[in-house]
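Session log. Operator J.P. requested a structure for one protein chain; no other inputs attached. Running the standard single-chain path with token output.
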Amino acid sequence: MACETACPYDGCVSTTTALAVRRVGSQRDILGECPLWDERAACLWWIDIRAPALRRLEPATGRVQTWPMPEMVGSVALTDDPSLLLVALTSRLALWHVETGAFRTLAEPGFTDPDHRFNDGRCDPAGRFWVGSMDNITRAPVGRLYRFDLAEGLVDVAGGICIPNSLAFAPDGRTMYFADSLAHRIDAFDYDPATGTRGAARPFAASAPPAFPDGSCIDADGGLWNAEFHGARLVRYAADGRIDRVVPLPVQRPTCCAFGGPGLGTLYVTTTSQRMSEAELEAEPLAGALLALDVGRELGLHGLPEPRFRTQA
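Structure written below.
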């Protein structure tokens, strides 16, 4: 059901669309994040940063598998080798073997603060991995943004970040999106996929406190879908930054979203149950659950295959 409603940001009018939301599996994440659809294996990967754990859903059977991680994991990426995932652990980037569970460290940034860790990450269309870091306790503006591939190694691109989030790339690879969540704004950058160079930041979209932008994904029409933490909703932004569609959710703190399933028509949403009391969890039973919305069938919108990290320099 759709209705026209006033947008709280710039007086614009956006479409609020109530979609059926279903729970996937019975697990409850402490801090679910970074869902990724692997179209080759027909499965969804995601993480629980705090457990810490890596999870995999096989929609055809409903089976959910969980692998404990040796330290907090901020994000993951598919690779061009189906037996490997790129994993951003607390203080290192490593390849993780799906069958054996073995890790091979690729890069270490040399964090000197034990509370500093990697957070959101995503591959660009050319197979480089972009990943941010943050102070896990204070959220002080000491985080960094890095670009990584095997040829150049780990390149420090920017600093002064509180919580790095919303990394995404336009379908043509010419625009990069990024948010420092505590700025309550998503920025856009001109991007050269051939060199991995980004231009100056320009404001793309804003959120109204206490809501702030968490993880994002891009649909095949170039719309950016953002999970608004403390906002209880998904927001789809058009390529020019206009709010195109708002989808309410039954949880206050969605964390990230990703297209998957047949035809990339299912929008999966991770959520958090972190620091919630028993009373709060009872009032919000889907907090920490993996959610699914059939946006392909209901809205005619579909996703794009996720870029893969290049394991060969």
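Operator note: The helical segments are 278-283, 295-299.
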